[in-house]
Amino acid sequence: MGEVLVWVIWCIAATACVATGVRVVTAANPFSSALSLIGNLASLAVLYLLASGEFVAAAQVLVYAGAVMVMFLFVIAYLGGRADAPFAAGARGAQLASIVASGALLAAVLLTLLLDAGGRLSDEAAVSRAFGSPAEMGRLLLTDHLLAFEITSIVLLVAAVGGVVLGTRSSAEDEADAAEVPA
């Protein structure tokens, strides 16, 4: 592929990644947010392809954009537009806290770039030939990054338990709903 074409595809995918990422956190409708996340994951897969990570791109599309997002959409459809959803009323304190946290994260990233890179960024990163291969990823996950791998599995387990807790209704809620329905 020509250098200009790669650059154009990279710019389009990067712009789509940023735009859909912003849409994920700003959309009022959970379905719109989930669909934007699917677009974000797909554009990220294109960036992986451009970095010669074919396996990572395929896993991104199949596992995340496919299976996980379908599960998210089912959970959103099951829960519906509940009134007790977090930030449903647009709590100003929570919005302000998220803006401050985002600004602090951006400042930390920029400070790290300035201190570690001396204000300069390389045009090309050194990428090993094994980048993105299943064997290399498995070796790294089960040796060098085992703790991060296990912590991620615990976080996913907690998220699954949280989904079950959010999806279950207490008997008091069921009785209140039954009392509201005229016979």
For the sheet with most strands, the description reads: none
Q: Low-confidence parts, pLDDT < 50 over ≥5 residues?
A: none
Intertermini distance: 69 Å
Number of H- or I-type helical stretches: 7
Look at the structure and give the mean pLDDT: 79
Shape: globular
Radius of gyration: 21 Å
Q: Helix/strand-derived class?
A: mainly alpha
Q: Could you state the order of secondary-structure elements as H and E?
A: HHHHHHH
**What is the beta-strand fraction?**
under 5%
- The level 1 CATH classification of the domain at 1-80 is Mainly Alpha
Number of beta strands:
0
Structural account:
With 183 residues, this protein is mainly α. Among the domains are: 80 residues, Four Helix Bundle (Hemerythrin (Met), subunit A) (Up-down Bundle); 39 residues, no CATH class. 75% of the residues lie in helices and 0% in strands. α1 packs antiparallel against α2 and α2 packs antiparallel against α3. The mean pLDDT is 79.
